[in-house]
Task: structure prediction
Amino acid sequence: MDNRPIGVFDSGLGGLTAVKELRTILPNERIVYFGDTGRVPYGTRSVKTIEKYAAQDIRFLSSMDIKLVIAACGTVSSVAPHIGMVMALPFIGVVNPASKAAAAATKNGRVGVIGTTATIKSGAYDKALHTLNPDIQVFSRDCPLFVPLVENGWFRKDDEVARIAARRYLTPLREQGIDTLILGCTHFPLLWDVIHEAMGEGVTLINTGCEAAHTAAALLRERDALNEEEGPGSCRFFVSDSIEGFQRLAGILLGSEESQDVRQVDIDSTAC
Result:
């Protein structure tokens, strides 16, 4: 048994998709979440800056005496996974779990990937998918407006701005005849209904946050490191900018009772 918390980080709200799944499949676990809302989005930054942010985020979470860290950020997982892999703690990104799920799901071997500009430019999903199955054809598209839409609460099915952006980004992928689409940023599952509508029936959507959560659960079981204390687990949230905006949107996704313990931190001073 290991009752230390699981650490999860993202550039903002997106990683809450992983937290939501963790709360479902591992209800006894304690979770510490850091959303770097003061520096979101990561996907438009340089590689050097993304590496710096990833190192700071992981060091901050490590100060919470965590037992595992999940980079619930497609950009970090694609561009700077080596930052987490050199740490002493077990590290899980979103690229490999999502790629495995997509390779298993596709029937026609045509897989689409959407993500931030940095994620798509890295080619990380292409490499992971081709390692699993060299015959898979990968069609990628960056969707830079999706993260700001989510961070500002514009992710519901009836939000016309989100629907217009989705049609503009996703029509070329739909025309390629893909049957599986990796939502290569953990913000994107919040646009699930909008993306599903734009892609149409017959396309399987892969939720990267959920796949990373299941991989983390399997690793903890394998290491006999689950929290076996009686009673429900807990969530603590830290952000690098305004608490109010994060708390409101987190409440929509997780439920208000899950998003009350939110604190603001100066990530530059705490992660030196």
In short: The CA atoms of residues 147 and 187 lie 6 Å apart. The two ends are 31 Å apart (CA to CA). The chain has 13 helices and ten strands. The first strand starts at residue 6 and ends at 10.
